[in-house]
């Protein structure tokens, strides 16, 4: 049934200046089929298009321009957002041209890529944007045809009057319609009438990406622009002295400048910068604690054994439960620092003038880029424009604006437009990592194998709260204590795809597998028993939907034929994060005496799946990401400097190591929730649990390949 | 500095750079061919793949002075209309997430198929294992190479 909903005037202000030109290349959907056809450029279309609201313009020729306000880094928002607008508009998708909007806080809310939050935030707004424009187009057509609006229907950009057989295209009434006032209330489609949402729509940037068009931040060049690279200090150190004589002598170097413990080489192109940096002679001195990984090992133990910790949640009487326990299980799990390593290293362009600043580049938080620039320069934010390029990955690293303000500082100093480029080594040594964390779990079982007590203490290095105290299994255990304790370090940390849960989920799901084993219970049944308890009489507050969690567990067990194939060793894992639920099963098979990781099943409940092709890859990519980092990646420190500086020593997963993945979604018609992150957290646990089943070895630290247990099991990884 | 005459995408380009400048930076900074990507700079990830006389080669450590009259093809020159079978397959399979590594992946796939038009799955995996995709689109890459292979006449 169609739902009536109030429109929000703020969403539908007409935009005065539109984004156009610059980096944004319109994608011609038909170019592969008819390459000789004359295709209008996006700029040409925009020059005639009439604005309906901040998301939508329509030209008299029927071209539809949909603005995508959020930064695109591979979560496919630049395709899925416009699909939602086009759906309610009843547009023909082939008429749609997508344009990346600039930062525009007057017209858009939350131009952020983070927290898997864009879809739940914008779902209704985008639907209303399309529906309101459709309403106005129909009203204009009704006036033109002199018939009641409710006698008209729409399909693929055409308005039909069934009784007379007359029809008008959106383009034909766009001019009149754009002059009408947006309605106060609007009826949205019944989800069963969706024609675009729920169908696989290809990425709107495919053609540009696959032919090498400039799309990304590093692809941005401006006449007269200077290039810069920066030598940053080790963590916990400050600049003592710089000898830049040799560096300045490199051909193509314009200057070497110092700001805030950074030494920047500035030149006319990139290669001279790389060469000149090698010739810099820089001395640093300690400015606080200078840490190594061996210090962190000691610190973890002190924090886990210490008296001080913040109590995040306490239910019942934990001491009594453990005193009365028939069996106590206790384990520690550890995860290392990780670099985000997006394939496109950090970079940004800034042109600081007396009265205005132009910023261009890849950022997950354009508003933060602008506000930090405004603060640095002491100018009003409205004097600063931010153009969003496509992001060559982000994974949370581009939530920061450190690389933006560097470009601003240098443009101001050099009185010229500057693009700052980070080398891969800069990217890996330049900070803002996933924090390292060690967890101590304890579980108390009664005689029947019921979990009567549960304790978790998370010890993190700059991790903030390293627990999610109201997440499962909280609510299902009578006596529970969750604590978090943090060491403050000069090594900077930052959200990393599925912050905290990217390692907490592994540790917790692997530990629960240990508890189920000790209780002699099937891991799936064990979880379902706990959830039944949480459903019937929840202990304290719970933040997850028990039924949705049970739903993905049961479907994953069904799809993976859980426990039905005697030749398979299966590991189970389920996690709730970013409003979505994902259960995974990993299959390990023994081949000629060696375990082989064959397959991972994933069942996801993220509500309505907007774009099945994009969603399938979000889940696949999340699993590959979760697996790769659980298996291989490790960032260790010596005297404030990471030992791993590039992909020769910091291992990322490659094609041959990836198992088969089977992706399923729960169909429940619930409004869509996040999908950029939730598939990652369960993967490490599913794999560790399957390896235990196959080999009897528990992998309690990441990366797996560096554990003693791993070297004993000869696990094979392969795609086929 | 010295002048180098380079044969790129069927045209001669003259650049005045130091001889040790890697081809990657000549393409990007001096010729505006930005489809070839920088990511690691040490020939580990494959984002900077180009063809030299039809072979897929990383360009980030390849000094411009070593190229001579070799024929360089970049992603911009792989096909006239963006319709190389590999590019079409990449679109059909909808391979990309962030897309940054995909030009390099496409260049490796195109060179692989030129040498071996009907590769086995294992041959595809061995050939494509040179390239890193941080988003994890490996299954789709493999599928797209197989699809492109089926399109070859």
UniProtKB/TrEMBL annotation, chain A:
The keyword Glycosyltransferase does not apply. Residues 211-288 form the Aldehyde oxidase/xanthine dehydrogenase a/b hammerhead domain. Gene3D superfamilies: Aldehyde oxidase/xanthine dehydrogenase, a/b hammerhead, Aldehyde oxidase/xanthine dehydrogenase, molybdopterin binding domain. GO terms for molecular function: oxidoreductase activity. Pfam families: MoCoBD_1 (PF02738), MoCoBD_2 (PF20256). Keywords: Membrane, Transmembrane, Transmembrane helix. InterPro entries: Ald_Oxase/Xan_DH_a/b, Ald_Oxase/Xan_DH_a/b_sf, AldOxase/xan_DH_MoCoBD1, AldOxase/xan_DH_MoCoBD2, AldOxase/xan_DH_Mopterin-bd_sf, N-heterocyclic_Hydroxylase, OxRdtase_Mopterin-bd_su_IorB, TAT_signal. The chain crosses the membrane at residues 12-30. PANTHER family: ALDEHYDE DEHYDROGENASE, BLL3820 PROTEIN. This is Isoquinoline 1-oxidoreductase. It comes from Rhodonellum psychrophilum GCM71 = DSM 17998.
UniProtKB/TrEMBL annotation, chain B:
Residues 2-78 form the 2Fe-2S ferredoxin-type domain. Keywords: 2Fe-2S, Iron, Iron-sulfur, Metal-binding, Oxidoreductase. CDD domains: fer2. It holds the Pfam family Fer2_2. One of its GO terms (molecular function) is 2 iron, 2 sulfur cluster binding. The keyword Transferase does not apply. The keyword Oxidoreductase applies. Signal peptide: none annotated. InterPro entries: 2Fe-2S-bd, 2Fe-2S-bd_dom_sf, 2Fe-2S_ferredoxin-like_sf, 2Fe-2S_ferredoxin-type, 2Fe2S_fd_BS, Beta-grasp_dom_sf, Diverse_Oxidoreductases. PANTHER family: BLR6218 PROTEIN, OXIDOREDUCTASE WITH IRON-SULFUR SUBUNIT. This is (2Fe-2S)-binding protein. It comes from Rhodonellum psychrophilum GCM71 = DSM 17998.
């Amino acid at each position: 049934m169609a739902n009536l909903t109030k429109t929000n005037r703020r969403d539908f202000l007409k935009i005065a200046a539109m984004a156009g030109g610059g980096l944004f290349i319109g994608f011609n959907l038909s170019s592969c089929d008819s390459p000789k056809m004359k295709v209008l450029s996006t700029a040409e279309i925009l020059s005639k298009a009439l604005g309906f609201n901040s998301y939508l313009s329509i030209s008299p020729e029927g071209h539809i321009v949909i603005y995508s306000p959020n930064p695109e880094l591979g979560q496919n928002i630049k395709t899925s957002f416009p699909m939602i607008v086009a759906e309610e508009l009843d547009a023909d998708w082939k008429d749609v041209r997508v344009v990346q909007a600039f930062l525009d806080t007057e017209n858009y809310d939350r131009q952020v890529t983070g927290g898997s939050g864009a879809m739940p935030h914008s779902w209704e707004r985008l639907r209303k944007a399309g529906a309101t424009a459709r309403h106005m187009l129909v009203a204009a057509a009704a006036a033109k045809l002199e018939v009641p609006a409710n006698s008209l229907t729409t399909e693929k950009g055409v308005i039909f009057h069934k009784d007379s057989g007359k029809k008008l295209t959106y383009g034909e009434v766009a001019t009149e319609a754009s002059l009408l006032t947006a309605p106060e209330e609007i009826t949205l489609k019944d989800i069963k009438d969706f024609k675009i949402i729920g169908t696989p729509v290809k990425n709107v940037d495919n053609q540009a990406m696959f032919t090498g068009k400039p799309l990304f931040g590093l692809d941005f060049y401006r006449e007269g622009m200077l290039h810069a690279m920066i030598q940053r200090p080790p963590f916990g150190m400050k600049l003592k002295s710089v000898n830049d004589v040799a560096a300045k002598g490199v051909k193509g170097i314009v200057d070497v400048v110092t700001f805030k413990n950074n030494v920047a080489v500035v030149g006319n192109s990139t290669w001279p910068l790389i060469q000149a940096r090698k010739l810099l002679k820089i001395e640093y001195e300690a400015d606080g604690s200078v840490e190594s990984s061996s210090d962190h090992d000691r610190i973890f133990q002190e924090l886990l054994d210490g008296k001080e910790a913040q109590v995040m949640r306490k239910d019942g009487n934990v001491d009594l439960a453990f005193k009365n326990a028939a069996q106590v299980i206790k384990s520690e799990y550890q995860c290392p620092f990780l670099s985000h390593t997006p394939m496109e290293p950090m970079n940004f362009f800034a042109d600081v003038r007396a009265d205005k600043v132009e910023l261009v580049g890849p950022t997950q938080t354009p508003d933060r880029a602008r506000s930090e620039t405004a603060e640095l320069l002491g100018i009003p934010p409205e004097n600063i424009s931010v153009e969003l390029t496509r992001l060559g990955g982000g994974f949370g690293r581009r939530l920061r604006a450190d690389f933006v303000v560097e470009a601003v500082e240098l443009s101001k100093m050099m009185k010229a437009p500057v693009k700052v480029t980070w080398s891969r080594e800069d990217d890996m040594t330049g900070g803002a990592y996933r924090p390292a964390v060690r967890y101590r779990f304890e579980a108390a079982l009664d005689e029947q194998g019921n979990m009567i007590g549960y304790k978790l203490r998370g010890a993190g290095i700059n991790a903030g709260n390293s627990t999610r105290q109201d997440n499962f299994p909280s609510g299902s255990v009578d006596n529970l204590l969750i604590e978090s304790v943090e060491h403050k370090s000069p090594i900077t940390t930052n959200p990393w795809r599925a912050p905290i849960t990217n390692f907490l989920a592994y540790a917790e799901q692997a530990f629960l597998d240990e508890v189920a084993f000790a209780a002699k219970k099937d891991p799936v049944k064990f979880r379902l028993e706990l959830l039944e308890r949480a459903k019937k009489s929840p202990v304290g507050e719970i933040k997850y939907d028990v039924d949705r969690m049970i739903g993905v567990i049961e479907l994953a067990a069904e799809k993976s034929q859980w426990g039905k194939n005697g030749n398979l060793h299966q590991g189970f894992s389920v996690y709730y994060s970013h409003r979505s639920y994902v259960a995974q099963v990993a299959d390990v098979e023994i081949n000629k005496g060696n375990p082989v990781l064959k397959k991972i099943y994933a069942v996801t409940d993220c509500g309505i799946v907007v774009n099945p092709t994009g969603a399938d890859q979000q889940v696949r990519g999340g699993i590959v990401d979760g697996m790769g980092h659980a298996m291989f990646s490790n960032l260790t420190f010596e005297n404030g400097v990471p030992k791993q500086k590039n992909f020769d020593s910091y291992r990322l997963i490659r094609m041959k190591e990836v198992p088969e993945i089977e992706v399923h979604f729960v169909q429940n018609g619930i409004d869509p929730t996040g999908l950029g992150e939730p598939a990652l957290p369960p993967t490490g646990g599913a794999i560790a649990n399957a390896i235990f089943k196959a080999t009897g070895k528990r992998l309690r630290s990441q990366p797996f390949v560096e554990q003693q247990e791993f070297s004993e099991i000869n696990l094979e990884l392969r795609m086929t | 500095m010295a002048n180098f005459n380079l044969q790129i995408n069927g045209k001669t380009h003259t650049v005045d750079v130091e001889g040790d400048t890697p081809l990657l930076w000549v393409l990007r900074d001096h010729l505006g061919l930005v489809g070839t990507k920088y990511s690691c700079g040490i020939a580990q990830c494959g984002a900077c793949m180009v063809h030299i006389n039809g072979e897929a080669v990383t360009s980030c450590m390849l000094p411009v002075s070593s190229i001579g009259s070799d024929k360089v093809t970049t992603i911009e020159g792989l096909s006239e209309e963006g319709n190389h079978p590999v590019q079409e397959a990449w679109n059909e399979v909808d391979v990309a997430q962030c897309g940054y590594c995909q030009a390099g992946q496409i260049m490796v796939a195109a060179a692989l198929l030129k040498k071996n038009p009907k590769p086995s799955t294992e041959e595809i995996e061995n050939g494509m294992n040179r390239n890193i995709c941080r988003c994890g689109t490996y299954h789709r890459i493999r599928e797209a190479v197989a699809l492109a292979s089926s399109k070859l006449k």
